[in-house]
Design goal:
The chain is mainly α. Helix content is 82%, strand content 0%. The radius of gyration is 16 Å and the shape is elongated. The two termini are 15 Å apart.
């Protein structure tokens, strides 16, 4: 699990930097301040949870239990759903799509996965390794 968490953490952190720079420079003239803030929230939470994945990957070397592994999975899913939905909503607004359908419901589901990731991370740290 440590290679998966570490690889995902590095990949998502790098993408967060790229997307953050893209938002600050390329998107700024295309969207309003409110939508830019939405995009930046996606990049910020992606970075936070990329760092969490790196911590999980490093700690999973010495803390070998399923809770640690599950926390990494939850962080990955959370990044894809939470940040991914915010990015998608921003790009749909740029294209002029007004109705977002059920896309807005995906964001809080991604947030729930973040919360589960932190909860399982805590349990995994407190639990003895097998």
């Amino acid at each position: 699990m440590n290679k998966t968490a570490l690889s995902a953490g590095v990949l998502f952190a790098g993408l967060s930097v790229i997307l953050g720079a893209f938002g600050a420079h390329a998107l700024k003239p295309l969207i309003g301040a409110e939508q830019l803030q939405v995009f930046e929230t996606g990049a910020r939470y992606q970075m936070y949870h990329s760092l969490a994945l790196l911590a999980v990957g490093i700690l999973s070397i010495s803390l070998k239990n399923k809770m640690i592994a599950w926390s990494a999975n939850f962080f990955i899913i959370g990044i894809l759903l939470f940040s991914g939905s915010l990015y998608t909503m921003t790009f749909l607004k740029i294209k002029g799509q007004v109705g977002l359908g059920g896309l807005g419901l995906i964001t809080p589901i991604g947030g729930l996965f973040f919360i589960l990731g932190w909860l399982f991370f805590l349990i995994g740290v407190l639990k003895k390794s097998k």
